[in-house]
Design a protein that fits this description.
Length: 272
């Protein structure tokens, strides 16, 4: 168990032990995996004492969230509804508050569950992930970061330093709707909508191995709903013990219509 005090120390350890090491952020996913022997890393690198990572700020047109920032810290930020309304809508749906008290935003992104709300937000907002190794730092678009279910383009010697959620304009509308079997369960399907005039971005979580994002131009809600109905009938949708593909297609339509309506009606005091 390593408890480094700085990013530099973390990167030194990752350089030496990357293949056999796992970053321990909030531990809300990793610890249960270790308890069930699904993961048994030789080295654990705890982020708790690396205070540089425990910060978030609005910089270069984005909300930049450091790897140590817990979901509840960001949820409790009094500016969240103004700066990133989509995240404010989503947090109550991420597990339960005791899990959000420990779980980090970047830990969820690192885990890359296609039903995770943070993954859906990052993809729908067109965000990015900043990674660092001893030799380089790079920023990767969310669309290139998530490769599949629980798969990302992170190299074993890289630390996710932060995730960046781009700010939108004052006129942007946001909508979010989700269905899960019980409160706090992962989404069966979740839909996020970002509207800028006639341009609509629609993200679907839980439907396949990665979040699916579509950008369309439409001048009425009816037109957007029509697009969503077509997508729900035509795109690849997974079938698993959680839900049939038929249920998922149905949820895409119904939740999609709800989120579109919310984005259309959205009246936030949004500040970029
Ligand atoms: C009962 C339960 C219900 C849940 N429901 C939901 C839900 O509805 N929606 C949802 O989105 N999530 C849900 N979660 C997951 C929760 O949000 C976790 O907190 C989150 O997925 C992982 O965050 P963490 O900080 O605890 O990461 P950890 O558990 O510490 O790490 C998770 C993985 O990411 C890697 N990792 C973490 N941080 C970094 C980093 N900076 N750089 C590189 N790799 C890193 C770790 O090595 C590990 O492989 C649930 C969890 C539980 C236990």
């Amino acid at each position: 168990m390593h408890r480094p005090n700085s990013i530099r120390e973390i990167l030194d350890i990752l350089e030496l032990h990357g293949e056999d090491a796992r970053i321990l952020a909030g531990g809300q996913t990793l610890v249960p995996m270790m308890a069930m022997r699904v993961a048994s890393p030789a080295h654990l690198i705890d982020l708790a004492l690396a205070h540089e990572l425990h910060q978030f700020d609005v910089t270069k047109g984005a909300l930049r969230v450091g790897a140590g920032v817990t979901q509840s810290t960001l949820e409790g930020w009094d500016q969240l509804a103004l700066k990133q309304p989509l995240l404010e809508m989503m947090f109550p749906w991420v597990a339960h508050s005791p899990i959000r008290n420990r779980g980090t935003v970047c830990g969820s992104i690192a885990h890359a569950d296609p039903s995770a709300e943070m993954v859906l937000a990052l993809m729908t907002l067109g965000g990015s992930v900043t990674l660092a190794s001893k030799k380089r730092e790079r920023t990767v678009n969310a669309a290139d970061f998530f490769l599949g279910a629980l798969q990302t383009s992170r190299e074993p010697n890289e630390l996710i330093v932060s995730a960046e959620f781009p700010m939108q304009s004052a006129e942007t509308g946001f909508g979010f709707a989700e269905y899960g079997y019980r409160h706090g369960d992962f989404a069966v399907v979740a839909v996020a909508v970002v509207r800028n005039g006639k341009s609509w971005t629609i993200g679907f979580g839980g439907v396949d191995d990665t979040v699916k994002v579509f950008r369309i131009e439409a001048s009425s809600i009816g037109e957007v709903d029509e697009h969503i109905n077509k997508l729900a009938s035509t795109i690849e949708v997974r079938e698993d013990p959680t839900a049939t593909s038929g249920l998922r297609r149905h949820l895409m339509r119904t939740l999609g219509a709800r989120a579109v309506n919310q984005a259309f009606e959205f009246k936030g005091n949004y500040q970029s």
